[in-house]
Amino acid sequence: MKLFVDCKKAGHLCDKGQYEDASFFEKLNVRFHNLICKHCSDYSERNAKLTKLLKDPKCRQMPEECKKRIREELERELAKNKTEQKP
Amino acid sequence: MANHQLDPQKWVDKYSDYLYNYTIVKVNDKEVAEDIISETFLAGLKSMKNFKGEASERTWLISILKRKIIDYYRKINSNKGKAEVRMNYSSDEETGDWLEERVADPFDRTAEDDLENTELGVAIYACLNKLPEKQAAIFKKKTIEGQDTETICKEFDITPSNLWVIIHRARTALASCLEENWL
To answer: Per-domain residue ranges for chain A?
Structure first.
């Protein structure tokens, strides 16, 4: 295992880090790389900001059971329309 | 002008979260928002033949949704009897039908206009709608629903490295879109 990685690898590990998919050592790789690379350090900052926004409670999601209910309603209506078209 | 198409089978997957964020800020009640969105989709289905293809599918659905939200406020307003909410011009010089002028013409507003001064949730889902369909679907599953890599790879028949490339592209595009339109 290397302590220093290239930009491509650092970017990938930074993405993984946003999902808790990166190991401790991989996170260390990103940190070390960012010390010597302005570009990747900016990328990491931006990436972390995006993660924070996506976890904000103001970014809401319609509950899955509600989506399911509406999907079924739409399916029923669509099926009805089809049978009406060819009597 | 681009000729947009309607595809009701994909409405829930593509737009329900966007419409949900949009509605909940305006009605401040989860169940009411769910009902209004369900009504919006059904109304959309009924008036599909009136769709001219001039606006995007999402803009068109939003225009229906706006009317449904107004209907909701009218209804609770009439239930309350005399507790009337007056929406009016800010000065006496302006006259006309306030509601018609301010609300009824959604087609000349683009989705981009709607993004300004908007809520975070609305902005995020509006930006997600700009991504290629498959990219957005994979990104949502991984990031918002928190599914693990293996499950998603199986569902879409891709390798983990495919997945990370897609995630990377989606994140970059999303960050730029939010920087432009929200931050």
So the answer is: 7-85
Q: Which two tokens stand for residue B121?
A: 């949730």
Residues 6+ apart with CB under 8 A from B84: B77
pLDDT in tens, B3-26: 788 888 899 999 999 999 999 989
Distances (CA, A) of B87 to B7, B23, B70, B78, B84: 36, 19, 12, 15, 10
pLDDT tens-digit readout, B158-182? 999 999 999 999 999 999 999 988 7
pLDDT per residue as tens digits for the range A26-59: 999 999 999 999 999 999 999 999 999 999 888 8
Among A26, A61, A64, the residue to mutate for chain B (most B Cβ within 10 A): A61
Q: Which residues of A32-68 are buried (b: 16+ CB within 10 A; e: fewer)?
A: ebbeebeebbebbebbeebeebbeeeebbbbeeebbe
- Reported as a single tens digit per residue, the pLDDT across B138-151 is 999 999 989 999 99
Residues 46-75 of A with CB under 8 A from B: 46-47, 49-50, 53-54, 56, 58-63, 66-67, 69-71, 73-74
Domain ranges for chain B, please list them: 1-109, 131-183
Read off the pTM. Answer: 0.77
